[in-house]
């Protein structure tokens, strides 16, 4: 089969709807008799609930109901913990999930205490002031290290410490490696809290149909099937009685897959109880305090090397802030632990972490999902070691790259998909070389930088490498169906938040069935359209759902060929599928359109042949044996204003290998978006809490997202090392842009600041002008 569309920069099918306002988002859902919901959220980060008096609020005009934990009693159980910890011997794991409305205790500022249902959102919000809450304040656990001191307050009274989990993984003998090393370099690294900030905040509409005993939920979730299954269990319904629709979703980036958010559980329950549709749309302030966060970690890491810069071993002990609850298991810290290994041969690795409960919002994956932290640590260690050993920064990386003949490369530790972290394929050296050539590394260091320094300009260069686990299981499925009008409809169980699935999946189908991508209609995120699936996370859509779509469209193609061969009484080999029809090769005018074949596949007379099914359609599933590993190198030249510490990115290069590429234009968009978020995380975005656990910058005026002015033009290039783990050879790409930006910025800024004779080591993320100002004025700087 020739591929016309797979690999081509096909324009996105979904954009017409999005650009003309035709795309349906959760807030567009308007239902007759719909009520609106507002949540009363705890002002305090930690406190014991003495009483909640809702009587005054209930008297307000337009208020229909007010609920607290007393109303739902035992009915709402804590959200089921769907993400279990990997089976790593000796691990400690203390799972704690929240109930939708706090009972007995609040554990973070923003945790829901009560919910008001009213005729409008305005009335519901106004009535929040009339709920009287008596709370006994408790000391808030905010500082990660202080949380582990025995005298510290307990976030969960039934535990005897704030330890949420402890995991140790190792390979080789680090102690021996360090003993025989020429250099052992130790540093402490900090990574601060951040938030994903999608354009569309979260939202839920729930509609209980008492007559049909059916619950329909429109939800901004990234995992509609999980939500359907969990809600059915919580509401005492069968799965078939619950339909979850994730329509167009304006960005998810990970946090929209928390299972379960209180609002996701509360709204269906309220709708059932009042027998009316209800709506809640998160406002931006709620997003800051009630949607999950990421990033808080402290690493004490060391690297052992030979005199010529070969890595002998790495040791890392880190603390991970999991917030008040840990419904998402250990995905984030396990990713940090695994991703630290990067594209390098590291013979000995000793890594342990403690996940810590604090009185801060819950931490779950956000684009990169902990991988940034690991990459930050190893890349910074390598830079500092290169400096100590007087080896070029690119050269030290090159010397340690895993050679191409070493794949599949088993890292001997367990990854988040419970399998040993094995890199399926890769060819790392050409990626580094391309990136260095594209940024003009040598020329910059030998010619341009000295000249710029003579002119008094602080300009530095950075390079950062990473390997990213993508495309994990368990599985996804797809139903591909040719309709009688010749158009093809496809349904999968994953949701879409802007990744371009409506186009890239259509390209896969279009090649198999000889139609145009615009004739393929993709439905994602509707559990009535496709019953099974896991969701959109871990850059798995292209690998897992993409291959399922491919398998299903190949099955449909085979069926179309068979039907046409029967109709023409010819051999299948004599037929070709193209231009929406099946034709006999070399016999002009002898063809049957796909739509007609779809009609024939559903005969009204006679019989369907034994062993065949009606309809020109097929449902297939694909589950990869383990994740596929993408890799890349980012390089940047950055100018720092020595007075204001404002940055100007003069050049930004990404070279990336995500196996075979379905749509290079979508892929570039994915990388651009990731880099933009990475720049925010590296330099602008920091959630600041006071020692009472109060978020001090809960608005987009104070929490600075990079705008188009701060995001540079990027030069992108690819190499292609197909994955042997899926027939299409794909590796994921959705998070790649975000992962290495932190160490890249730190390195380039450090390099730039050398001119000022204020030598600083940048060991924390995010940096900012004010933080650089402080650091460069510290003693010794
Ligand atoms: N793609 C491709 N060729 C490849 C790999 C990917 O053409 N070799 C295309 C895919 O077909 C798909 C897109 O790139 O259209 C992303 O694919 P993939 O890497 O499989 O990622 P997912 O589909 O699983 O999306 C999730 C991923 C993650 S984990 C986060 S976080 C993230 C991201 O995607 N969130 C996003 N990108 C986002 N983009 C937008 N606009 N909004 C988000 O919320």
Automatic annotation (TrEMBL):
SMART domains: Ald_Xan_dh_C. Pfam families: Ald_Xan_dh_C, MoCoBD_1, MoCoBD_2. Residues 20-139 form the Aldehyde oxidase/xanthine dehydrogenase a/b hammerhead domain. Keywords: Molybdenum, Oxidoreductase. The keyword ATP-binding does not apply. One of its GO terms (molecular function) is iron ion binding. This is Xanthine dehydrogenase family protein molybdopterin-binding subunit.
